[in-house]
Amino acid sequence: MKILVIGGGGREHALVEKIAHSPKVGKIFCAPGNAGIAKLAECVPIEINDISNLVTFAQKESIDLTIVGPEAPLANGIVDLFEENGLRIFGPTQRAAAIESSKAFAKELMSKCSIPTAEYEVFSDFNEAFNYIQGRPLPIVIKADGLAAGKGVKVAMTYREAADFLKDVMLKKIFGSAGDKVVIEEYLRGEEVSVIAFTDGKTSCFLPPAQDYKAAYNGNQGPNTGGMGSYAPVTFLNSNDLEQIKKRMLSPLLKGMARERVPFKGIIYLGLIMTENGPMVMEINCRGGDPESTVTFSLLESDIVDIFEAVISGRPEEIEIKWSNKKCVCVVLASEGYPGDYKTGMEIFGLEKASSMKDVMVFHSGTARKGDKIVTAGGRVLEVAALGDSYAEAVKRAYKAVGRISFKGMQFRKDIARKVI
Ligand SMILES: Nc1ncnc2c1ncn2[C@@H]1O[C@H](COP(=O)(O)OP(=O)(O)O)[C@@H](O)[C@H]1O
Ligand SMILES: [Mg+2]
Question: Which residue has a Cα nearest atom 1 of ligand 1?
Answer without folding.
Answer: 187
